[in-house]
Amino acid sequence: MTDTLAIVRADPPRAAAAALLVIALATIAGFFFFQYVLGYPPCPLCLEQRIPYYFSAPLAALLWLGAGYGAARKVLMLGFLAIAAAMLWDAGLAAYHAGVEWKFWAGPTDCSGPINAIGSTGDLMKSLQSIRVVRCDEAAWRLFGISLPGYNVLVSLVMVAVAAWGAKAVYARADEK
């Protein structure tokens, strides 16, 4: 524990980038676990919420490397702010999705409305057998009353805070010079 605190104090931007990378990779592993191991297929909104993690994980790895090898302050600052913006957007999208699950507002018609595009009557049975609609307005899993999008709000906001801390550390480092 003491070694971890020493690393955080010695190089806060690098520690922030490492924390962002670990959180993003753990979240990616988590949603793949729910999808492929537990068998909860994602809805369209769930798939859209994954995009910021796919963006943030490699960017955090690059920030970690850049902070360790003396990348330009502006590059590091922009990287942390980009992750913060992406995860803030994701927190909003996840909150919207959680609200759709709680029926606070209507969701997108492609995953929470009626199924209208079945096709011609001749192909009706074939169409019905092949339809696999994962609804956005039904929570597939909950823990303590919070669904996966609800937890995604929390994880996204933690990542926003860590990215803001990394950006602040980069900014403070420039003031020291």
From TrEMBL:
UniProt-listed InterPro entries: DiS_bond_form_DsbB/BdbC, DsbB-like_sf, Uncharacterised_DsbB
Transmembrane annotation, as ranges: 15-39, 51-71, 78-98, 151-171
BP terms from Gene Ontology: protein folding
GO cellular component labels: membrane
Gene Ontology MF: a single term: protein-disulfide reductase activity
Lipid bilayer topology: Multi-pass membrane protein
One Pfam family linked to the record: DsbB
Top-level taxon of the source organism: Bacteria
Localization per Swiss-Prot or TrEMBL: Membrane
UniProt keyword list: Membrane, Transmembrane, Transmembrane helix
Principal location: membrane
Protein name: Disulfide bond formation protein B
Origin species: Pseudolabrys taiwanensis
